[in-house]
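Course assignment 3, question 2. Fill in each field.
Student: A.L.
Task: Predict the tertiary structure for the chain below.
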Amino acid sequence: MRRLAIVLALLVLAGCTDGGERRTPLPVNPTASEPVAALPLPSPSLPPVVNSDGCQGLVTAAQVQKATGLSVQASTGDGAAAVAQYGQAVQSLGLNARARMCPFGNGGGDQVTVVALTFPDAAQSQKLWTTIKSLEAVGGVGEAALSDKSKTLLARRGKAIVAVYLVAAAAPDANHLGQLQSVANAALAKA
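Answer field:
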């Protein structure tokens, strides 16, 4: 009886299949002769770094080193794109200026950035200058200068305004007015 039950079970299972004539068997492993379609993997690399000169000869690393005593080199990056943002900001005030930006730095964390805006005339330069309120007036550079005496100095001469931002890693909050003035004077000479 038990044998009959097993034979009946096998017959029932055999009746559920159609012999496989209309089916294509799936290979367990593709053979070398069969093409394998696979999507390319995304690249783990980043897009290329863009280095462009936004400084355009305003000041050199040697001039900044001499003025500050900091061993800095020209920093890499898309200086032209940064300059374009300054130009757009000036235009939003109804003014027109040629902008140049010179970033310098070193592995120790020292940073000096010089930004120059050269306007078509002194009236536009003066119009922008009157909007600056947060810094203290200082002498020793240009026709007028404003500074926090530590990290920032803005100077105006004729149709140019120069901004100098300095971070000396060893003494970030010290009085760096002399260094700021020296860098600004070098930049105003070519602005």
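Instructor remarks: Strands lie at 73-74, 98-105, 111-118, 136-138, 144-147, 152-157, 160-167. The longest strand covers residues 98-105.
Grade: pending
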